[in-house]
Structure formats: C-alpha cells, structure tokens
Amino acid sequence: MTRIFASALVLVAALSFSATGLAQFGTGTPVDVEEHEAGPAPIRDLTGGWTRLRPEGRFY
Questions:
Q1: Could you tell me the CA-to-CA distances from 26 to 3, 9, 20, 21, 60 in Å, in that order?
Q2: Which of 6, 14, 28, 56 places its Cα 20 to 30 Å from the Cα of 37?
Q3: What pTM was computed for the model?
C-alpha cells in the first residue's frame, strides 16, 4: 500500500510541474500586441468613456 501511495505522490508532483499543470496560467505575454481603436461607448453609458478594469500590460 505504501508503494502505491509513493508512486501516486511522485506522479502528482511530476504533473504539477509539467507543461500540463502550468498550461492554465498561460505564458504571461500578450498574443495580440496590435493596438485597437476603442469603439463607441455603450448606449447607457452616460460618461461617454470606457473604464479599463486592469491596467494595460498587466496580467493576473
């Protein structure tokens, strides 16, 4: 039983540091680096501007 547990522990550790385990986080670099012109504000937006939720170039 201990041998199976140790093998499973090694397998989990190997997968957690592999590309499969880290694929969910991405590379941290933007894919589309071309600047896009902002479209018109939504009809119900009375301020006439857009609010960026995250600063440009920041990835979480």
A1: 34, 25, 11, 11, 10
A2: 28
A3: 0.30
